Amino acid sequence: MARSRKRNGSNRLVKSDLIQKISNIFIENPKKTFNYKQISNFLGITTDAQRGFVTDLLYELNYEGFLSEISRGKFRLSSRGGHVTGKFIREGVKSFVEPDDGGELIFIPDKKTGTAMLNDTVKVFLYAQRKRRGPEGEVVEVLKRAQDTFVGILEVSENFAFLNVQSKVLLSDILIPKGKLKGGKTGQKALVKITEWKHTKKSPVGEVVDVFGDKGDNDAEMHAILAEFGLPYKYPKNVEAAASKIEAGITLAEIAKRRDMRDVVTFTIDPHDAKDFDDALSIRKLNNELWEVGVHIADVTHYVRPGSIIDKEGESRATSVYLVDRTVPMLPEHLSNGICSLRPGEDKLTYSVVFKMNDNADVKHYEIVKTVTRSDRKFSYEEAQEVIETGEGDCSEEILALDKLAKKLRQKRFDKGAIAFDRDEVRFELDEKGKPLSVYFWAQKDANKLIEEFMLLANRTVAMHIGKPKKGQQTKSFVYRIHDTPDPDKLENFSQFISKFGYRLKIAGKQPQISSSLNALLSEVEGKKEQNLIETLAVRSMAKAIYSTENIGHYGLAFDYYTHFTSPIRRYPDMMVHRLLERYSKGGKSVDVNDLEQKCEHSSNMEQVAVNAERASIKYKQVEFMADKIGQVFDGVISGVTEWGVYVELVANKCEGMIPIRDLDDDYYVMDEKNYCLVGRRYNKKYQLGDELTVKVAKANLDKKQLDFVLA
Fold first, then answer.
1. Can you say how many angstroms the Cα of residue 77 is from the centroid of all Cα atoms in its chain?
2. What CATH number is given for 630-711 in this structure?
3. Rounded Cα–Cα distance for residues 640 and 656 (Å)
4. What is the reported pTM?
């Protein structure tokens, strides 16, 4: 009995394997017909019994609808009778098309992807669907490229040239005719546009758009990172020329239209190297014992008119981009660092939210008003922090009063369920050529939190002002900054994972209870080896904040209404908010919500692209910093687990590298996704997220921005 069952099981395995091989022959030759002899020859099957088995399987696939019998004994791959269009995507090492109609993912075999690249819009020919199998097909046409320019390193020979591309989108080099090199030389970083790609067996052909400079040169590498993400790395000359013609225009007539607050103590607090001062604070004590606090924001839209070339460029960029060593501004520097920047000792046009509040930071009254202001002092965060800690220095009375109010505002937020994601940031000390000399961590202190609280208050007030109209008034279209509730499954998985470290998280109940539990967890892990890992996973369990015309509140801040008003120099949504505020204050009609939503979606997308570029620049500098440390040993924590290896973050400097699975050669390791670990089949050894490891630096690949480690 036992032997019989074993033999039948073996036959089933052979049948399953053989069906897969037969299916692959037809998939790879969708227009050809085959009989059992041809299929048998393909598979090296020679005995009559086995060939008879092949015949049975062909008719079984015919019965399932996977094959069509064209004439007696001759079969061809069936089609579902049509084509679909969709987006070409990858999940792991497999390729799929996500249909435009929202249907089931269509699997695309490796040899049937055509010239499709990641996120291209493609046309797919559908194969007949087999029982208990998902839909399959082949790409027959690329309808729209998601990306047609690529960054890489040039290699130029006597007869030909090509771009060595380091991209997950394009897995091929690009051939470049000698006349299309634009002066590029071997070893230089360049941007190349694909001009032709007709056949999968041949490389695409392209032309050089721009040469950035020699590989390893700091400017060349930073420009390459920006171009890699489709971000501009220089400002159009015609836009800069248009900006340079704009004058500050602070005339007596303009001042007369505004509230003049130049006589109130006002100052900015920003990073020590900042030049674009978006915001300033003023404070004074009123006769009725209330505080008047002014949040003054650069009146950018007074200068940048809708539809102008400056406005169109700003809308396209949507945000300033902050790389390790530079800021790529959304607006031309004449505006961002000049007439709009709230520099000390200069009269400036501002859009302000002026609050009257008591000592408990309860807002008793507010006004949103156009103002003219003058900053008395420019503080760095470090300088303001020193005033808070010592109680001495310029504007000490005003800074200390604001600090007390800010702390009360902050406590109220947390009491209502706000979440404290105050993560340390990786910073670099660079030499004059941009080479990293050291890595350090920057943490928020009271001075940062002071500014944060009053910006949050202004943003929230503006959102409520428009989003929560008075009785009898209709809500008008507006730009909100929204943050959805966490995905319950992600929260559950996160809770299960941290339990392995002995931590607990409440994942059911009202928001203040869940948030309080999460804040307690973040406090508990502070200073421990797993802090960065747990903070990272906590952030991943949350939804991403985006811009939208549909207000659902902001979960992380525990606000029912929230927008972005306070940074119009560096964020286009803030400019949109300024214009809407002014329009509605004059009784203007609600704007078209569909047009506004498109702009919100574009701004959200560009924000994410900018964040990815910033991370790439940090990764590059981390790899550059570690390049002279090959062979050195470091303590680390497993920060990621994949099918191809484990990522390890070094405790000393937060640089992350990978131990490829091929180097874990003491066993055959498989991925256990549920438990975030690799498990050895033979000895059951585990490499789990959060485990401590001692590693040796094996390789630093700057082209790939990749560190390779081995176990020490």
1. 42
2. 2.40.50.140
3. 10
4. 0.84
